Amino acid sequence: MYKSLRVLIGFAILCLAHAAQAQNIGNTPYSRYGLGEYNYNLGNVRNAGMAGVGISAGNSFQANTANPALLYYNSITVFDMGVAGQLKTIKNSAEKQTDGNANLYNLTLAVPVSKRWSSAIGLRPYSVVNYEARTTSSLPSNPRATIQQQYLGEGGISEAYFSHGVKIADGLTIGGSASYLFGAITKESASVVQDDSLAAIGSEKVVYNERIRYENFIFRAGANYRKQIKDKSYLSAGAVYSFGTDLDATRRSSYERRTLSDNILDDNILPDSSESSVNLPPSLHAGLTFDNGKNLTIGADFYSQKWSEFRNFSGESELGDSYRVALGGEYTPNANSIDNFFARVTYRAGVYYGDTPYSARGESIKDKGITTGFTMPLGRSTIYDLYQLNAAFGYGSRGTTDNNLIKENYFQFSVGFTVNSRWFIKRRID
């Protein structure tokens, strides 16, 4: 087992440099605003299969990172790694395009410290920026001339976290996490004037390029209470509060002369460097879960964040308040079945709906979708080791084509591996 675990951890370390910037969420024009597309799922592939539900849904064999208070239920060492991606169709009233990507999604190592205390370290995406947009319009003063505006953005913010969960009393656990947010976002904008009556015009363009690097710490506090309401029935209530913080931001900008095919002619015109801070507002995740203590879990989560309090590098407010409601569950027919493999598989499903922080032309951008997923055991399980394959799939839509806005239809997928291992066991030979 230890050899296999070392191989997995070694592979994960090799992915860290790429994971620090490459996130799982695909190209979206709305990531132009704020810090980009926010990652709602604080958990892993298991939670993705339940539409992100997990604030009060503890699990003994999956890393409970959605709520640090649930880490207490990880009584054995858990190593979890997942990759994710999506295919997306972006369209307005006249055009559409399809693209996709896939990258490392989460990396977690949870270790029990004592019978009442477990800890976890990990890496996950916080936000991602990935967009490219072009608009063309005519010049009122010259009908034969057109102006094409180009916008491009990429990058994102990653989150490296250290979490703890402690049992306070029967059914009551609390937890906390300290996360280091870091990453850079690059944005470009250019305008090209084209006029067929002037042969020399439009052979090159001037591009404004800026790169902003963000970093600072963010802290979260969580709690969960689980109570038996009747024989083989339990009810859990949990919450996670993310404290607001100011991200240190350093911006480097310049203008570039390029050909229309983006070959750089001069890349350092009027360089500038400045420092500021970006305000991240606090957020609240809350959840309620029912389980039978064996093979059935049904839960509902609510998320809210006052993004209207967000201030960008220039101190401007460009987002609105957001919320998200999710309902999901998981079921295992018979985890101890010997002759039926599919009875040992855990099946999941969920739905979600909410308001994103984005709005355009008076329209609030809604996001809704459905998810499904499963966990299947790999190989033979022993009292020391348990290997699992996790997968999740989702289909959703965001935005609208009304008022010439953009609508996104997306198919998301994620796959991960979980290794459960009992460490620090003193084996005896009779």
Unreliable spans = 11-26
Number of strands: 17
| Assigned CATH architecture | Beta Barrel
What is the fold-level CATH name, i.e. the topology?
Porin
- The global form is elongated
* Order of neighbouring strands in the sheet with most strands: 2-3-4-5-6-7-8-11-12-13-14-15-16-17
What is the succession of H and E elements? HEHEEEEEEEEEEEEEEEE
Roughly how many Å apart are the termini?
23 Å
* Total domain units: 1
- Estimate the helix proportion, in percent: under 10%
Mean residue pLDDT: 86
Structural class: mainly beta
Percentage of residues in DSSP E strands: over 45%
What kind of sheet is the major sheet? 14 strands, antiparallel, barrel
* Radius of gyration, taken over Cα atoms and rounded to an integer in Å: 24 Å
Which superfamily, in CATH terms, is the homologous superfamily?
A: Outer membrane protein transport protein (OMPP1/FadL/TodX)
Protein name: Long-chain fatty acid transport protein
Keywords: Signal
Organism: Pontibacter aydingkolensis
